[in-house]
Amino acid sequence: MRILRKGHGVFWSYVKTIFRSISSSKVYFFINIAGLTIGFTVFTLIMLFVLNEFNYDTFNKRADRIYRVVEIQNPPGARVQQVAITMPELAPALKREFPEIEDAARFIPWSTALCHNGGKRFYEEGLFFADSSIFKIFTFHFVEGSASAAFDGPYSVVIDQSTARKYFGNANPIGKFINIDADLAQSAFQVTGVIQDFPQNSHLHFNMIASLGALERHSELFRGWTSNDVVTYVLLKNGRSSDVVQRELPRFLKANLPQNIWSGLKMYLQPLGSIHLYSGHILYQVNYDKGNIEHVRLFIMIALFVIILACINFINLTTARSAIRTREVGIRKLLGSFHSHLIYQFIGESILLSLIGLLISLPIVEALLPTFNSMMDGRIIVSYNNQWPFLLMLALIAVTVGFIAGVYPAFYLSSFRPVDLLRGRFSSSKKGILLRKALITLQFSIAIGLVTGTGIVVDQMNYIYNKPLGFNQKNLMYIPLRDTESRSKIPLISERLLTDPRILSVSAGELTGSGGTQRAVIIPETNGQSRLIVRESYVDYGYVRTMGMKMAEGRDFSREFPSDSSSVIINETMRKTLGWRNPVGKQIQMGNGEIFSVIGVVKDFNYFSLQNKIDPLVMWLRPNKCQYLVVRVAPQDMGSTTDFIAKTWNYLMPHQPFDYGFLSNYLDSQYGNEVKNEHLLALFSSVALLVACLGLFGLTLYTSEQRTKEIGVRKVLGASVFSIVLMLSKESIKLVMIAGAVAWPTAYFFMTKWLQNFEYKITINAWVFIISGLIVFLTAMLTLSFQAIKAGLSNPVNALRYE
Amino acid sequence: MIRISNLKKIYRTDEVETVAVASANLRIDSGEFVAIMGPSGSGKTTLLTILGLLDSPTEGEYYFLGHEVSRYSEKQRTVLRRKNIGFVFQNFNLINELTVYENIELPLIYMGLASSERKNMVMEIMEKMRLTPRRNHFPKQLSGGQQQRAAVARAIVGKQKLILADEPTGNLDSRNGDEVMNLLAQLNEGGATVVMVTHSTEYASWANRIVQLFDGHVANENITEGTRSVLELR
Fold first, then answer.
1. What burial class does residue A801 get, using C-beta atoms within 10 Å of its C-beta: 0-12 exposed, 13-18 middle, 19+ buried?
2. Interface residue B141 vs chain A (CB under 8 A)
3. In this structure, what DSSP letter does residue A285 have?
4. Which DSSP string do the residues of A323-372 spell out, in sequence order?
5. A594, burial (CB in 10 Å: exposed 0-12, middle 13-18, buried 19+)
6. Cβ of A417 and B82 within 8 Å?
7. Which of A21, A330, A336 sits opposite B97 (nearest CB)?
8. Helices A672-706 & A26-54, crossing angle to 10 degrees?
């Protein structure tokens, strides 16, 4: 009891001293708090983002038992690639043959389909076809209907609440019909269930799930082991390990797969939890706003850096100004305080400051969150129902930060002996000064490192943007072709459009930047029996010309050659892969025996993002399979040109609303994530630099306060303002330069590693280092000189009067 | 109360060895008022830090209240100091962030007394020292004399038996200096032992005994006429 009372009294005495010493040194308090507040603001924002990234798909109750099947394709003559699509027969076979597997489901994403009921027509982007087992594997919340009865009939559809409202308003949609004009299954689907909108943090995003049975009825494509278009998910039984399944997969594949098509194919089970962040290398995946673990790591690193910088400010300012506190330490020890009490006091003080910083940062985070979230595609969901664990975590981190920042100053300050009170010795020790210098150097190393890193990222991104893609994305409009009718009208639409001189050229085919290209197995003439997997692209006459691609040899498809329907165009990479000197006139054979002859070689162009290499590609003249009408327009008067195209379309295709886009915008959206990350990186680097400069400002302020008398004497003796500024800044300039020497090689090392993620990359330019060094150096100089010039300009009489 | 024999204090740095106190012998009884004098560097302050249990001697014996304390740990010294020794300094050494009341209360907090008990003791001593109207002032708002009165109040609030004063009048004008000396004399009359380092022969003469230090030795001990009557001064 006695001890408790004593602790109580001591505690309040400390708290009083802390608050009163804060009010007597407002500038330093402000610098410390500002640094910590900025640190926690950045940290909290980043942590919200990071936690959200790690929480993807975890809302599924059986998340730890759900896996996606990924294929590792390794066909002869082509590069290894991983794809998240499989054969239609895989899911039922897995369920049949593996006792570990509780259930398996097939999932087919449908690119845009026109859906309508009565008067309402919409293009639906989020239409999927799936097995009914999907409702057992993933967690759905049925508002109407039930999981078990969802797909009782072959033409059933389950829709989410937003979609239900869109088509049926407030009426109950159960039993009503939605017409889906999906190529292979144009039919009326009966609504059998309404589910709550799927959470944002899911790798899958959809509004409608229609019964896969409907597709099976219409097409062979969704049966057997030859096609490869469906996503397969499996649910393991409770307590069963995926390892057992993985081990047995090779045997299973050998027994089931037709080896002539799938030689070298392997598969593995990818845990649901790793789909969002660890799938960058997997192609053909339905993965809504794909995450990137590298980015997540980068952001965690930045968050830690900013906090470290704020801690260093605290340590430096506290130890530098220790003389002010040492008298208090001495007196307390003299009056009977133990060394340990004082250590607790100072650590407590630093924890208190840290918590104040956190407290101030919270409303700032709240205010910044919408902006930050829109930069992150609205990915961050702050649930206010269970924010306590997060707040508790932040508080714990603030306490840890306070402890780390406070522990050295605490031992340093509390080590002053009361004997010194009698002797009047309060100068800071050499050791303290050395440590301070080391910490400033570390701070500026981090700042320079971040600025250099940002410079390299910006450089790389500019390079990617400006790298010729092999086609001309400017002034190219695309219009989706969604059904057989629109494809059959390509010649008619083209003819009408070309009557306007502002329309330069019209064709149909793929959007080259996209991953929409298909794959085919071919037998090239000279390779005898060996097979080659190539990417295939379905195009119409004049595609190469309209897209602004260049022919290396031969010619584009043309109406003047009726035989072109059994001809192909290949790309340069394919010619190289086959080692053909004169490819024009050579023949290739399809898996089904059909023979095509090569009429031209198109120069390589990038159809995926520039992070991927170009693979062999074959273009077929298949207007009836083309996904987009591509229209090259004159750059002038785009508005009225668009109006003209819309009018023409609406006249010829009255049942399909006009929908269009421009290729350049589409490509920009492909690099959207990288652009956002680049912006954020630049933003956070600036914040880090700001925090470092805050500390430098505080130290300069302190130094010039300490040296007021010296400055006064020097000025009386005739020192110039410049020489005073130089005297006060010299040391810091030296430290910033050492920091550069530390930061540059480190940044070089890590950025070289980062660049390896890209297939096409810059060589790191020395200028990036010089410029980043200069930016940090000049910012530091600006910070220093503000205080130094003020000191230099001060009237020496005032300085000396203090004595 | 205090007995030191063959006490030695040597400060060592990398290159230099400084003998601050070389073989000092001294005895101070309870209730004495002793003034320590001597030129700068004679070891006065060092002796005071050892007597005040702020530092331990390099060699020799130090009996304080019957305990041999020369080999006490810092913690043991702190516990002993807390209860028995009060300090008064030339530059007052009050904590600027605490009020007069809180400064005086501080040693009682470290002694672990309850807040009501502390309050009574602090109010009593403040009344005695005529500081009650200043109780919520901060040190910087007080005159030098008032600050030193507060420091003296802090030194004795816990009924400390030994008051160590290091040049207590050094920063005061003569009127305030006399007042502080008067306070120390009063305390001494009340039974406290007072040991005071001073340069002033005039104030030294207030003591029962003057100890002269020279080069770390006790050079001379004079018995003075004794404490002047407090009344006489007024």
1. exposed
2. no
3. -
4. HHHHHHHHHHHHTT--HHHHHHHHHHHHHHHHHHHHHHHHHHHHHHHHHH
5. exposed
6. no
7. A21
8. 160
Whether residue B50 contacts residue B56, with contact meaning beta carbons closer than 8 Å, is answered with yes
On whether the pTM is more than 0.80, the answer is: no
pLDDT at A116 over 90: no
Residue A389 CB partners (closer than 8 Å, separation 6+): none
CA dist list (Å): A265 to A253, A255, A261, A268, A315: 8, 13, 9, 10, 58
Q: Do A327 and B81 count as a contact with CB atoms less than 8 A apart?
A: no
Q: What is the DSSP letter of A199?
A: P
**Is B118 in Cβ contact with A338 (below 8 Å)?**
no
User: How far is the C-alpha of A184 from the C-alpha of A176, rounded, in Å?
Assistant: 22
Distance (Å, whole) CA A147 – CA A138: 11
Contact of B36 with B47, CB cutoff 8 Å: yes
Backbone angles phi, psi at A238, to 5 degrees: -55, 130
CA distance B29 to chain A (A): 23
Residue of B51, B72, B109, B141 to mutate, testing the A interface (most A Cβ within 10 Å of its Cβ): B109
Per the structure block, which two tokens stand in for A485? 């009718």
Using a CB-CB cut-off of 8 Å, the residues of chain A touching B110 are: 6, 10, 332, 335-337
| Residue partners of A297: CB distance under 8 A and separation at least 6 | none
Contact between chains at B81 and A9 (C-beta distance less than 8 A): no
Give the strand order in the sheet containing A503-509. A503-509, A628-633, A476-480, A661-662
| A23-58 pLDDT per residue, tens | 777 888 888 899 999 999 999 998 888 888 898 999
Nearest to A357 by CA among A299, A417, A397: A397
Look-up of token digits 């989020």: A126
Phi/psi for A72 (5° steps) reads -105, 105
CB < 8 Å to B79, chain A: 336
Phi/psi of residue B111, each to 5°? -75, -15
ipTM over cut 0.95 = no
pLDDT in tens, A573-625: 888 888 888 889 888 887 677 889 999 999 988 866 666 678 788 898 988 88
When CB atoms are compared, the residue of B75, B79, B106 closest to A335 is B106
pLDDT value, residue A802:
43
Q: Within an 8 Å CB–CB cutoff, is residue B168 touching chain A?
A: no
Distance, CA of A290 to CA of A305 (rounded, Å): 26
- What is the distance in angstroms between the Cα of A332 and the nearest Cα belonging to chain B? 8
